Amino acid sequence: MTKPLSPSAARVQEALRTLGYTNQVIEREETTRSSAEAAAAVGCTIGQIAKSVIFRAKGSGRPILVVASGPNRVNEKAIEAVIGEKLGKADADFVRERTGFAIGGVGPVGHAQMLEIFIDEDLLQFAEIWAAAGTPNAVFKLTPDELKRMTGGSVINIK
Fold first, then answer.
1. Residues 20/13, Cβ–Cβ less than 8 Å
2. Which domains, from first to last, does the chain contain?
3. Number of helices (H) and strands (E), helices first, in the chain?
4. pTM value?
5. Spatial CB neighbours of 77, under 8 Å, sequence gap ≥ 6
6. CA 75 from chain center: how many Å?
7. CA dist 11 to 25, 122, 139, Å?
8. CB-CB contact of 61 with 116 (8 Å)
9. What is the pLDDT of residue 3?
C-alpha cells in the first residue's frame, strides 16, 4: 500500500490533474532539495533537473519564476532585460506567500499566485526532465514540451 502524499505534494498532484496531465508525484525518503540530490535520487543527470528559482522584481514586487537546468546559474541581467526591471532575491517568506511552498520544494505548477515564468532553453535538449513537487522530497517526471504547456512559460537563454 502506498503512503498518501503530503499536503504540499498532493496540491501539486491536483494541479497537474486539473491541468489535464497524468504525471505522478513521487515522494522519496531521501531529499531532492538540490539538483545533485534530486538527480541521484531519480537516476538522471543533473542537467535533467528542472530547478525552480524565485526572484522578486524590484520595481513591481511581482514574483518571477525561472525554471533552470540543474547545473545552470541564472544570469539575472538576462532576465532583467526581458522583464524590464531589476531583480532582487526572494526571501523564504516571499517564496512561501507567492507560491505556497517552502524553498527547496517549489515546482513549476500549483502556486498560490500567478507567476511570470521563464524556462531555460537548455532543458529542451532532454527527452525527460524532473521537477520539484511541493516538498524537498517530492518530484515528478515530465517532458520539456509538457513543462512549456503546463506553465505557459517563455523559453529563453537564462545564462
1. no
2. 7-156 (3.90.960.10)
3. 5, 8
4. 0.96
5. none
6. 17
7. 10, 27, 12
8. no
9. 85
Contact 102, 95 (CB under 8 A): yes
pLDDT in tens, the chain (159 residues): 678 999 999 999 999 999 999 999 999 988 898 999 999 999 999 999 999 999 999 999 999 999 999 999 999 999 999 999 999 999 999 999 999 999 999 999 999 999 999 999 999 999 999 999 999 999 999 999 999 999 999 999 999
Type of residue numbered 12: V
> To 10 degrees, the CA torsion angle through 105, 108, 110, 114?
120
Choose among 41, 13, 4: nearest CA to 142.
Answer: 13
**CB burial class (10 A; 0-12, 13-18, 19+) of residue 69?**
buried
Q: List Cβ neighbours of 106 (8 Å cut-off, separation of 6 or more).
A: 52, 54, 65, 95, 99, 132
